[in-house]
Amino acid sequence: MAKYLPLFPLNLVVFPGEKLNLHIFEPRYKQLVHDCLHEGKNFGIPTFINNSVGLYGTEIKILDVVKKYDNGEMDLSTKGLSIFKILEFDKQAPGRLYAGGQVEAVEIINDEDFVTKLKIKEQLTLLYKALGVEKLFIDLPENFTSYDIAHHLGLSTEQEYLVLQNASEADRQEMILQHLNQVVPIVLETERLKERVKMNGHFKNLTSPHF
């Protein structure tokens, strides 16, 4: 079912369930936030990509106005709710300073593949250990989805946007696993190279080979 949303295009991807802190300083977005708070509405963050507003984005709920400044600027705590596709885009919503658009919700298909998920876990363990950020893995919820890890894989904005557009969890898992299968060996080889470089110039206790 289509509905009209105030829109706040940004050069980033927001996933469902993600917490996002925003500093609001432009007059048009001060107005957007005021309208959302006053009318109890949500707004949308479509991804600004390739110098244009992308068709896909995420509906955002304002959780809290953390701080208000004397000049009208604000710090907001927000959360991503669901993914939408823009049907009609208005550079300015009727009578407003900010953009708006007619959007429809993208139905998410919860068809995760358990075997693929195990492979992703294995690769994540290797990656985070090599990078020294094991805490990222420890802090993951037990039943994590592709959305929970997409920002912690070294994906480009373009790659994250492809994840956002894909309605199938199984397909998103395959995209992520393919990325990890490419990246992890490079990271591990880089770590091995660093260790070899560190060894150069040090005294070594070497055992002569038998021949």
TrEMBL record:
SMART domains from the entry? Answer: LON (SM00464)
Q: Which domain of life is it from?
A: Bacteria
What positions does the domain Lon N-terminal occupy?
4-182
Q: What is this protein called?
A: LON peptidase substrate-binding domain-containing protein
Q: Which organism is it from?
A: Pontibacter ruber
